C-alpha cells in the first residue's frame, strides 16, 4: 500500500461545496448576461463565463490543481491543439478576399463586426 | 471483475498502476476534446456566416429547460466528486449513495432532453423534408406549448430574419444540424457514462473501493466531469444566441 | 556471433512466447503484445494484398490512352479503394502496430504495454473497421477518392460511401488506442536506468507518432461522422445547396490527414535510426537532435494542412502562411537525413538486407521530401496540383520511405521475432528488385506530372503513353519485390537458420533476451547502465574496445568475420 501516491490528494468536501455554489452563480450570471445587449461582446462574455466554469471543474472536481506537472502538460496540450484547430482554420475564413477585392461572407461579417462600435 | 487493490502483471507497484491509469484517462480526454472540437469548428463557421438563422434557431429552444439541464449536470459533477471523496476516505456506503445520486441526476438530464427533442419533432425543427423554421409561427394551434407572447416575438424575429436571409430555411437547418449533432454526441457520451456509473455502483455494493484502491471511481469521475464540461460550452453556444432582442 | 568465431551454433530456446500456450483462443484472446503484433502482421499483410490488387488494376488500365478495361466509374472506384485500403488499413497501422507493439516494451525493459487488454481491443476494432470497408468493396466500392470530398461523397455519389466512412471511423479508434497505449507505456513503464535519453530513437519516433495519433485522429473521426450523417440523414454542413461549405470538410479532413502522413513516416524514420547505427557499427550522430526532430515533425506537421487546399479559393494570406510552414516542416526531416548520413561517415558499413533498405530509404525519402517542397511552393503548386507529380511525390515517401522502413525493420527484427534468420542472398536480391521496380514505377510519374497528366483520370493524351507503360512495367517488378519477402520470411520463420540472441549484433535492450522472447520478455527486469547505440562499451554484447573508448576499432559486423 505504501504512502498515498502524490496523485492521491484528497480534496475536502467544503471545497467542492464552494465550487458548486460558484458554478451555479456563474450559470445564472450567464443567463442574465444573455438578455443584456452587449453587441458583439455577448458571445465573448458567454464563452468567458463558460471557460471560467470549465476551469473550476477541471482544477477542482478533476483534481487538476493537484496532479503532477506531466498531467498538467497533457491538459494544456489538449487545449492548445483545440485552439490550433479553431484559430488556424478561422484564419482562412476571415481573410478571404478574391482577386477583385470581393470579400467572402464570413470575412465580410468578421470585418463588419470588428468595425462595429461596441 | 472483483479486484481489491490487485496489481496487474505488467506493473511493479500500485502507485505505478494508478499513475498509468490516470495518465491514460487524461490522454483519452484530450482525444475527446479534439473530437468535439471538430464539430465546434463547424458550428463556429456556420454561426458566423448565417447569424440570423442561428439566432432564429437558438430562440426556439427552451431556455428554462436548458438552464435546468445545466444545473442538473453541474450538480451531478458535484455528487460525482463527492463520490470520489467517499471512496478515497473509505466511506463505502456514502460512495454508493453519491453514485446513485449522480445516476439519478443523469437520468433527469435525459428526461429533459427527451422532452426537448420531442418538442423539436413536433414543431418541425428536425432537419429533413418536413423542416420548417416558421412552423409554430404559421400554425400556432399545432404548438400549444409555446405561449402567445413567445409566438409573437418569434414571429417578429422570423420576419426580420427572412428579410436578412432569403435562404433562411436552409440555413436554419444548419443550426439544427449543429444542435442535434452536438447534443446527440453529448447525450451518447452521457449514456456511456451512465453505463459506467451503473457498473461502479454494482461494484460499490461489494465494498471493493476504498482509500487503498479507488482508481475506477476516479477515472469514471474524470470522464463524467469532462462530459459536464462539454455541456457547459454547449449551453451558451446553442441556447443563448441573440436572446436579448 | 560476436567476436568469438568459434562459438557453438545457437539453439532455439525451449520456452518462448510462441509456444507458451496453444490453440486459437490463446491467440485471439491474447494480451501478449508480441502475439498481438503478429495478429496485426497477418491483417496488415492481408490488406496490403487488397490494396495491391487495386493498384494492379489501375496500372493495367492505364497501359493505353483510352484505358484498357475499365469504365470511368470503375476506374474511380479502383483508385479510391487503393487509397483507402493502403492508407488506413496498411500504412497507418503497419510499423506501429507490428514493430512498435512487438518491440517498444522490449526496448524499454517492460513486461508488456501499459494496457494490454486495450491493445487487443485495438486489434479487434481494426478488424471490425476493416470488415465494414470490405463490405463496401463487395458492394461496389467507393468512387470519391480516398479524400471523400463533399458534396460528391455526401450527396451525389452512387457508391457505398456510408459503410466505408463507418469502417474508417471505427478503425480510427484502433489508432487512437494504440497511440494512447504507447504514450503511457513510454512515460510510466521504463526499466530502471532507462532514462529518456537512453531510449532507442525507435521509441522516440513512436512517441512522436503517438502524439499525432492522439491529437489528429479524433478530428477525422468527427469529420467522417459528420459526412456520414450528411449522407445518411441529409444534414447540410458540407453541402452548398443547403448553405454548407465543402471547404470546411477539406479543412477538417486535412487537419488530420496531413499529420497522418507523419504517422506513416515517423515510425519508418525510427526504424532507420535503428538500422543505420547497427550496420555502420557506429553511434548515431546527434541523438538529441534526431529525438527533437521527431517531436518537431509531429508538432509542425499539424500546422501545414492547408497546403492540400491551395487551389480551392482559400484566403491567399492564409495560403502564404501555410506555405511558409510547409517549408519549415522540411527542416527537421532534413536534420534527420543529415544525421543519418553523418552516422555513416567513418562507420564500418555492412550491406545486410536491412541496411540495403535503409539506403533505399535515404535516397527515396530524399527525393520524395524535396519534391514536397516544390508542391509547397504556391506558384508551382498551381501547375502541378492534382497531377501525377503529386502521386509520384507521395509514393516516393510512402513506398520509398515508409514501406522500405517497414521491410527493413521486418528483416532486422525477424530473427528476434521468430528465432530464425531469413536467407540473406535471396533477401538482397528482393531488395534490389524492389528498388528497381519502385523507381521504374514512380519516376516516370514525376515526368507525367510536369507534362500535365492529371491524377484520377481514366484516360490520357497519347503522348503520355510511353511513361505510363514504363510505370506499369515497373509496377510488375515492384510486385515481385514484395512477393519475395512474403514468401521467404514466412519460410524462414519455420525453417530458417537459428539466429540466437543477437545475430547482428545490435545494442538495443531487445537483443539482450532470447530469440524468440519469453512471454514476459525478460527473466529479470533489466537495469540499464549504458547509453544508446554504444558500440564501443558493451562488454555484455561482446562489443568492447580494449583500453576503453577507442575511435573506430569495433567488433566485426555480421557477415565479415
Explain how this protein is built.
The complex is a heterotrimer of chains A (118), B (245) and C (561). With 118 residues, chain A is mainly alpha-helical. Chain A has helices at 13-34, 41-61, 69-93, 105-115. Chain A folds into 2 domains: 1-67; 68-118, no CATH class. The longest helix of chain A is centred in the last third of the chain and has 25 residues, at 69-93. Chain A is flat, with a radius of gyration of 20 Å. Chain B is an all-alpha fold and 245 residues long. Chain B has a single domain (18-239), classed as Four Helix Bundle (Hemerythrin (Met), subunit A). Chain C is built from 15 helices and 4 strands. Chain C has helices at 24-28, 33-61, 72-108, 116-138, 152-156, 161-188, 201-233, 246-280, 287-300, 316-344, 353-376, 378-384, 388-418, 424-451, 465-495, and strands at 420-421, 497-498, 537-538, 543-544. In chain C, the strands form 2 sheets. A two-stranded antiparallel ribbon of chain C has the order 1-2. Chain C starts with 23 loop residues before the first helix and ends in a 17-residue tail after the last strand. The A-C interface holds A 70, 77-78, 81, 84-85, 88-89, 91-98, 104, 107 and C 187, 215, 219, 247, 251-252, 255, 302-303, 306, 313-318, 321.
Average pLDDT confidence of chain B is 91
Question: Spatial order of the strands in the main sheet of chain C?
Answer: 1-2
Task: Tell me what the CATH architecture of chain B is.
Answer: Up-down Bundle
Query: Biggest protein-protein interface?
Result: A-B, 55 and 55 residues
Count of individual beta strands of chain C? 4
Q: Remind me, CATH topology of chain B?
A: Four Helix Bundle (Hemerythrin (Met), subunit A)
> In terms of per-residue confidence, which ranges of chain B show pLDDT below 50 for 5 or more consecutive residues?
none
Strand content of chain B: under 5%
| CATH first level of chain B | Mainly Alpha
Structural class, from secondary structure content of chain B?
mainly alpha
Q: Indicate the mean pLDDT of chain C.
A: 93
H and E string of chain C = HHHHHHHHHHHHHEHHEEE
Distance between the termini of chain C: 10 Å
Percent helix range of chain B:
over 70%
The helical percent of chain C reads: 55-70%
Amino acid at each position: 500500500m505504501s504512502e498515498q501516491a502524490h496523485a492521491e490528494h484528497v480534496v475536502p468536501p467544503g471545497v467542492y461545496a464552494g465550487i458548486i455554489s460558484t458554478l451555479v452563480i456563474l450559470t445564472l450570471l450567464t443567463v442574465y448576461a444573455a438578455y443584456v445587449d452587449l453587441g458583439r461582446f455577448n458571445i465573448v462574455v458567454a464563452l468567458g463565463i463558460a471557460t471560467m466554469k470549465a476551469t473550476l471543474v477541471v482544477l477542482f472536481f478533476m483534481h487538476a490543481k493537484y496532479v503532477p506537472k506531466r498531467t498538467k502538460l497533457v491538459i494544456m496540450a489538449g487545449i492548445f491543439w483545440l485552439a490550433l484547430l479553431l484559430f488556424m482554420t478561422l484564419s482562412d475564413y476571415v481573410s478571404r478576399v478574391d482577386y477583385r477585392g470581393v470579400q467572402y461572407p464570413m470575412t465580410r461579417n468578421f470585418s463588419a463586426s470588428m468595425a462595429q462600435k461596441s | 471483475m472483483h479486484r481489491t487493490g490487485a496489481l496487474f502483471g505488467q506493473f511493479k507497484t500500485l502507485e505505478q498502476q494508478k499513475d498509468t491509469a490516470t495518465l491514460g484517462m487524461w490522454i483519452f480526454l484530450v482525444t475527446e476534446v479534439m473530437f468535439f472540437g471538430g464539430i465546434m469548428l463547424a458550428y463556429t463557421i456556420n454561426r458566423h456566416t448565417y447569424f440570423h438563422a442561428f439566432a432564429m434557431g437558438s430562440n426556439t429552444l427552451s431556455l428554462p429547460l436548458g438552464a435546468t439541464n445545466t444545473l442538473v449536470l453541474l450538480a451531478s459533477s458535484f455528487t460525482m466528486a463527492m463520490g470520489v471523496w467517499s471512496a478515497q476516505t473509505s466511506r463505502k456506503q456514502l460512495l454508493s449513495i453519491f453514485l446513485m445520486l449522480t445516476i439519478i441526476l443523469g437520468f433527469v438530464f435525459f428526461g429533459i432532453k427527451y422532452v426537448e427533442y420531442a418538442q423539436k419533432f413536433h414543431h418541425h425543427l428536425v432537419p429533413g423534408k418536413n423542416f420548417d423554421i416558421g412552423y409554430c409561427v404559421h400554425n400556432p394551434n399545432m404548438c400549444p406549448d409555446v405561449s402567445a407572447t413567445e409566438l409573437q416575438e418569434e414571429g417578429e424575429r422570423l420576419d426580420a430574419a427572412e428579410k436578412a436571409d432569403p435562404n433562411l430555411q436552409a440555413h436554419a437547418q444548419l443550426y439544427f444540424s449543429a444542435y442535434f449533432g452536438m447534443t446527440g454526441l453529448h447525450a451518447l457520451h452521457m449514456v456511456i457514462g451512465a453505463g459506467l456509473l451503473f457498473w461502479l455502483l454494482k461494484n460499490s455494493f461489494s465494498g471493493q473501493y476504498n482509500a487503498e484502491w479507488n482508481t475506477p471511481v476516479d477515472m469514471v469521475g474524470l470522464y463524467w466531469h469532462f462530459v459536464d464540461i462539454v455541456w457547459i460550452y454547449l449551453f451558451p453556444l446553442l441556447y443563448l444566441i441573440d436572446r436579448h432582442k | 556471433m560476436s567476436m568469438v568465431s568459434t562459438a557453438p551454433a545457437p539453439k532455439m530456446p525451449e520456452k518462448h512466447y510462441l509456444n507458451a500456450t496453444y490453440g486459437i483462443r490463446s491467440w485471439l484472446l491474447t494480451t501478449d503484445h508480441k502475439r498481438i503484433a503478429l495478429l496485426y502482421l497477418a491483417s496488415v499483410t492481408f490488406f496490403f494484398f487488397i490494396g495491391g490488387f487495386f493498384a494492379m488494376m489501375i496500372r493495367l488500365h492505364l497501359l493505353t490512352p483510352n484505358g484498357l478495361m475499365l469504365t470511368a466509374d470503375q476506374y474511380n472506384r479502383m483508385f479510391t479503394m487503393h487509397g483507402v485500403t493502403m492508407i488506413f488499413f496498411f500504412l497507418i497501422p503497419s510499423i506501429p502496430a507490428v514493430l512498435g507493439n512487438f518491440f517498444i516494451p522490449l526496448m524499454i525493459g517492460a513486461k508488456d504495454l501499459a494496457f494490454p487488454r486495450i491493445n487487443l481491443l485495438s486489434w479487434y476494432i481494426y478488424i471490425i473497421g476493416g470488415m465494414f470497408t470490405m463490405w463496401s468493396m463487395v458492394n461496389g466500392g467507393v468512387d470519391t477518392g480516398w479524400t471523400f470530398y463533399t458534396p460528391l461523397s455526401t450527396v451525389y455519389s452512387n457508391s457505398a460511401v456510408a459503410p466505408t466512412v463507418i469502417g474508417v471511423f471505427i478503425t480510427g479508434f484502433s489508432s487512437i488506442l494504440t497511440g494512447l497505449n504507447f504514450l503511457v507505456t513510454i512515460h510510466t513503464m521504463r526499466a530502471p536506468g532507462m532514462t529518456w535519453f537512453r531510449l532507442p530513437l525507435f521509441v522516440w519516433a513512436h512517441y512522436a507518432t503517438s502524439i499525432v495519433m492522439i491529437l489528429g485522429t479524433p478530428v477525422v473521426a468527427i469529420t467522417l461522422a459528420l459526412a456520414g450523417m450528411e449522407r445518411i440523414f441529409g444534414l447540410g454542413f458540407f453541402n452548398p445547396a443547403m448553405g454548407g461549405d465543402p471547404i470546411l470538410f477539406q479543412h477538417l479532413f486535412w487537419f488530420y490527414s496531413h499529420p497522418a502522413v507523419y504517422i506513416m513516416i515517423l515510425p519508418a524514420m525510427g526504424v532507420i535510426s535503428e538500422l543505420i547505427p547497427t550496420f555502420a557499427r557506429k553511434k548515431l550522430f546527434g541523438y538529441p537532435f534526431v529525438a527533437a526532430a521527431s517531436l518537431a515533425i509531429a508538432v509542425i506537421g499539424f500546422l501545414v494542412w492547408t497546403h492540400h487546399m491551395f487551389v480551392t479559393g482559400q484566403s491567399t494570406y492564409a495560403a502564404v502562411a501555410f506555405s511558409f510552414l510547409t517549408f519549415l516542416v522540411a527542416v527537421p526531416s532534413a536534420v534527420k537525413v543529415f544525421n543519418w548520413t553523418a552516422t555513416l561517415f567513418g562507420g564500418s558499413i555492412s550491406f545486410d538486407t536491412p541496411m540495403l533498405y535503409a539506403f533505399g530509404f535515404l535516397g527515396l525519402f530524399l527525393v520524395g521530401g524535396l519534391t514536397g517542397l516544390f508542391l509547397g511552393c504556391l506558384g508551382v503548386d498551381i501547375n502541378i496540383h492534382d497531377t501525377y507529380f503529386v502521386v509520384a511525390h507521395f509514393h516516393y515517401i510512402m513506398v520509398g520511405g515508409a514501406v522500405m522502413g517497414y521491410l527493413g525493420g521486418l528483416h532486422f527484427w525477424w530473427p528476434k521475432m521468430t528465432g530464425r534468420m531469413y536467407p540473406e542472398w535471396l533477401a538482397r536480391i528482393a531488395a534490389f528488385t524492389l528498388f528497381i521496380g519502385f523507381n521504374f514505377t514512380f519516376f516516370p510519374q514525376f515526368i507525367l506530372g510536369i507534362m500535365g497528366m492529371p491524377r484520377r483520370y481514366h484516360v490520357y493524351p497519347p503522348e503520355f503513353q510511353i511513361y505510363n507503360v514504363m510505370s506499369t512495367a515497373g509496377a510488375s517488378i515492384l510486385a515481385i519485390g514484395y512477393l519475395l519477402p512474403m514468401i521467404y520470411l514466412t519460410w524462414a520463420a519455420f525453417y530458417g537458420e537459428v539466429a540466437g540472441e543477437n545475430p547482428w549484433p545490435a545494442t538495443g535492450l531487445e537483443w539482450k533476451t532470447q530469440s524468440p522472447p519469453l512471454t514476459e520478455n525478460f527473466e529479470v527486469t533489466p537495469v540499464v547502465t549504458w547509453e544508446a547505440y554504444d558500440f564501443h562499451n558493451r562488454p555484455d554484447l561482446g562489443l568492447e574496445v580494449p583500453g576503453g573508448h577507442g575511435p573506430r576499432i569495433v567488433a566485426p559486423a555480421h557477415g565479415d568475420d
